[in-house]
Structure formats: structure tokens, C-alpha cells
Design goal:
The complex is a heterodimer. Helices cover 65% and strands 2% of the residues of chain A. By secondary structure, chain A is mostly helical. In chain A, strand 1 and strand 2 form a beta hairpin. In chain A, helix 2 packs across helix 3. Chain A is globular and about 60 Å long. The two termini of chain A are 34 Å apart. By secondary structure, chain B is an all-alpha fold. The radius of gyration of chain B is 19 Å and the shape is globular. The chains are: A mainly alpha, B mainly alpha. Chains A and B meet through helix 3 and helix 9 of A and helix 2, helix 4, helix 7 and helix 9 of B.
């Protein structure tokens, strides 16, 4: 059992990373990677939402009728997202970030990772492993988000979390700030990940 | 004239895929060949066009701060906008379920060719994203929201058909093994996005 739990936690972060291996949840995520701060908040929000909604769906797994399960799951996820959104709006320092993330917090509802984990894991497993699985997938997702945001903020504005890291003589690279560059960067991350781990390569 | 400007802008400048990365999951998963991409793209246009005006009416008549005045003037202070996520997603999910049932009953051939992509539209970020952007952009009337829905749907359709066509050709290329599949697809989408930036700043 202990071995199983360890796998449940480690697998989504490395071998089965939701973004770079399963390619889920790219939807609403890349637009928030211009600044590291936004990416951090997004990563934490997604982790909480995935964890909690996996837990709730797992608790309800024997009572949800199969035919309407998508709607029930969406309502549960939407509830969690509303909670996160209201908490972000309430905090003084987080309110500005909530404005900056604009619609993307709401779009966590349709983030494929959340639904994917509920469908694939939470509906067939006990609550505690489901919670851990949800949290671990959120962390695996957040990791990629933070890597992308790190490079985009560093090269695009020469700062990290708002603090200047590169000297003022550095000319910011505007291409890095444009949306398409996030995709190219992600392509490169997948390239490196798959070059290091030959099992993941597609034939 | 405003409608035309909004229409062109939502197709090319505010493209769902290249400017906002919405609907990326199904965009990447279903773009292996042009035929299925075509089917999914049309379904997305249809669902977007139907749900966005419904959500617009719900938002302006029920959810907006002070929107319930038409019921009784004493409700002017009620703000239900925190419920918008749950209402929007419920409308979208219910609508997709409805479309699925209707198509299954009356157009079985289309149903079998679309397969599982039809229910998947409920979790397509582009649909919910459309409704959330509608909330943010504060359109003046239902017509504008419908034009916006049609435009962004067509933008998504164009993007998925283009990518599917490129990927069909790309299967003949000799790509380094680790980059095969998703890696090269991401880079292709990025390059397509850069080329779509030509349209930025178009003003009609």
C-alpha cells in the first residue's frame, strides 16, 4: 500500500506529467505564464481544485448515476473554482492577481486535468488516494507552468517575481512575451523530457 | 459596420487558439486528420453560437449586479455574479447533452461520425471561455454576443483545420525521435500563431 501511494504521488510529477506527457490542460494555462507570480497563483489554485474535486467525486462515486456524471462532475468542479475565485477576490494582495488572471481562473472548470483525473482515477478509487492523486497532478502541472513562466519573465522583462534580475542594459525580448512563444517553449520542454526518457517517445 | 469589425476581430485578432490558448486539449488531440477536425470544428461553432446568446441573456437578466430589477425594484441591490461560473457551465453541459440526444435521434450518420467528440465539447475551454469573455467585454445587445460567438467559433474552426492539414503532411517528414508527436505539434502551433499575428491591429 505504501509503495502504491508513493507511486500515486510521484508518477504524475515525472513519468506521467499531465502537461508534457499526457498533454492535458494546456487550454487555459499558457496565457498566465507571462509573469511568474500569476503562474504560481494559477498552479496553487489548480492543485487545490484538482485535489478537492477528486476527493468529493470519489466520496460520491457510488451515488452518481453514470448517464449524468459529466454534469455532476462539472458542478462539483465549478463549486471548487468559485470557492478559490472568491478567496482570491477577498485577499488584498491577491485581488490584483485575480484581475490579471481574468477569465483563466474560471477556465479551471474546463481544465482537462481536473476532469481527466476524476474520470480516470477518482471514480474508481478510495477518497484518500484520489485526493493525493489530484494534488500530485496539480503539482506536476504547476511545475511545467512555473518553468515556462520562469523563462518568459526572465527573458521577456528581465525580472523574476517583479524583482530585476538581469542588468538594465538587457534589452527585453518581446517575442518571448507574445502568446506563440509559450507554445514553442513547451514544445522544447517536451523535447528535452522525451530525449531524457526514451520510453515516452512516440513511434 | 461595428458587427463586421467585431466579426473579423474575433476570427483573426482575438483568435481563441492563437491569442488565448482556449480549447487546446481537443485542438491537439483531434487534429490528426482533416475530416474529424472538420466535424469537431463545425460542432464547436454550432454550440458556441447557441450557448453564448443564452448565457448573455442569463447574465444581463439574472446574474449582473442589479439585473433582477425587472422582477421587482427592491431587488436592485442583489448581485449574483459569483454564480456565473456554475450557471454558464450548467447551460453549456445541458445544451451539449441536448444536442447529442437530438443528433443521435434524427441524424444517426452524423452522430456516428462525430463519435465521442460531441460530449467532449462540454469541457472545451473555448466554449466556456467565450461566455466568460462575453461577461468581460460587456456587449451592448444579444446580436453583438451572437456575432462574437460566430466569429470566435469560425476562428477556432480555421485553426483546427489548418493544423490538421499541416499534420497530415508532416507525417511524411523525418523528425528527431524525441520531438515526434506532441513536441513538433506545439512548435508548429507556435509558428502558426506568429503568422496569425499579421492580423493584429486590423481596424475596420
Amino acid at each position: 500500500m505504501a509503495q502504491n501511494l508513493k507511486d500515486t504521488i510521484l508518477n504524475p510529477i515525472l513519468k506521467g506529467n499531465p502537461i508534457s506527457v499526457l498533454v492535458l490542460g494546456i487550454c487555459s494555462s499558457l496565457a498566465v505564464t507571462v509573469q511568474l507570480k500569476g503562474a504560481l497563483v494559477m498552479a496553487i489554485s489548480v492543485t487545490i481544485v484538482t485535489g478537492l474535486s477528486s476527493l468529493v467525486c470519489s466520496l460520491l462515486r457510488n451515488t452518481i448515476p453514470n448517464r449524468v456524471r459529466i454534469i455532476v462532475q462539472l458542478v462539483i468542479v465549478a463549486l471548487m473554482v468559485i470557492l478559490v475565485d472568491q478567496i482570491l477576490k477577498a485577499g488584498e494582495s491577491t485581488y490584483a492577481i485575480d484581475k490579471q488572471l481574468s477569465v483563466y481562473i474560471g477556465l479551471i472548470i474546463t481544465n482537462c486535468i481536473v476532469m481527466g483525473r476524476i474520470e480516470a482515477f477518482a471514480l474508481g478509487n478510495k477518497p484518500i488516494p484520489s485526493l493525493l492523486d489530484g494534488l500530485a497532478n496539480g503539482v506536476g502541472y504547476g511545475l511545467i507552468l512555473i518553468i515556462v513562466a520562469f523563462f518568459r519573465e526572465l527573458l521577456g522583462s528581465g525580472t523574476l517575481l517583479g524583482f530585476r534580475v538581469l542588468p538594465l542594459s538587457y534589452v527585453p525580448n518581446n517575442l518571448v512575451i507574445l502568446p506563440p512563444f509559450a507554445l514553442i517553449l513547451l514544445g522544447c520542454i517536451i523535447w528535452i523530457h522525451r530525449a531524457l526518457d526514451k520510453d515516452l517517445q512516440e513511434k | 459596420m461595428e458587427y463586421v469589425s467585431l466579426f473579423v476581430k474575433s476570427i483573426f485578432v482575438d483568435n481563441m487558439i492563437f491569442a488565448y490558448f482556449l480549447g487546446m486539449c481537443s485542438y491537439l488531440a483531434v487534429s490528426k486528420n482533416v475530416k474529424t477536425a472538420n466535424g469537431l470544428g463545425l460542432a464547436v461553432i454550432f454550440v458556441l453560437l447557441c450557448t453564448l446568446p443564452i448565457n448573455y441573456i442569463l447574465f444581463t437578466k439574472v446574474l449582473q449586479p442589479g439585473a433582477l430589477v425587472w422582477l421587482s425594484p427592491s431587488l436592485a441591490g442583489v448581485d449574483l455574479s459569483f454564480l456565473s461560473f456554475i450557471i454558464f457551465i450548467a447551460v453549456i453541459a445541458a445544451f451539449t447533452q441536448l444536442v447529442e440526444m437530438i443528433v443521435e435521434k434524427f441524424l444517426p450518420s452524423l452522430y456516428s461520425s462525430l463519435g465521442i467528440y460531441l460530449p467532449l465539447i462540454a469541457v472545451n475551454c473555448a466554449i466556456l471561455g467565450g461566455s466568460l469573455f462575453m461577461q468581460q467585454k460587456e456587449f451592448a445587445n444579444v446580436g453583438e454576443s451572437a456575432v462574437y460567438a460566430l466569429g470566435s467559433g469560425i476562428g477556432w474552426y480555421l485553426a483546427i483545420v489548418c493544423l490538421a492539414a499541416i499534420r497530415e503532411k508532416m507525417s511524411y517528414c523525418n523528425i528527431p525521435a524525441p520531438l515526434k508527436g506532441m513536441g513538433i505539434t506545439f512548435i508548429t502551433v507556435g509558428l502558426m500563431g506568429i503568422s496569425f499575428m499579421i492580423f493584429m491591429g486590423i481596424q475596420l
